[in-house]
Amino acid sequence: MAHGRVRQRARDSGKWVDGVIAGSGGVATFQGSSGYYEITNDMGTVVLSGFRSNPDSTPGSIAADWRLVGGIFELISPALLDTTAHGINLRRTTLTGSADVTITGPGRTFLGDDNLFTGRTIDQTATRVARDSGFGPVPDICKPDAIILDNGGLQNDDGNYALVIHANRGITLRRAAVFSVPVMWAVRRRWTARSRSGTLGSTTSSSGDSQ
Length: 211
Prior knowledge:
Layout: E1 5-9, E2 26-30, E3 36-40, E4 45-53, E5 65-83, E6 87-96, E7 101-104, E8 108-110, E9 121-123, E10 126-129, E11 143-149, E12 153-156, E13 169-173, E14 188-193, E15 198-205
Parallel strand pairs: 1-3, 2-4, 3-5, 4-5, 5-6, 5-7, 6-8, 7-9, 9-11, 10-12, 11-13
Antiparallel strand pairs: 13-15, 14-15
């Protein structure tokens, strides 16, 4: 595939791996050794069980950068976003559905800003996200495992914006999970974490120092 930006339409089946549009619960697979590809979803709502990005590339290597624009992707189980190399960017499209969404692979996956899926987010990599709304609508009550870090972590995708996770989105840490907390000088916080199926929470007291 050629270098540089290439704009394509999802309706053009020749732009999908094997010339097949994944619909009715299939897996959308994108493969390229390099370049920037912007694919516009001109089919409205597409039902998928997952995305695979650059599965034939060396894990974690530089490969094609896929960006999906517009439309809605309804995810059904297993709802797996698997990025082997470089990345897939979903910031300009919308994910919906009730299934838990699992994000995995050594590549980079960028979640959109206005997702509508109501399942949990299971993070097995370093997921990029810029807004709390990337995890879907805020739960009505506190959901301790709304976000599960399972050998994964979260990275703010917008250096000009302070990402704040809503209090109703509980974060559960499993094996080798990473959660980075910035130092707070105005408020004293005592952070507690339990491994495996434990949860991460905080208690706050008014004080001028931090720990």
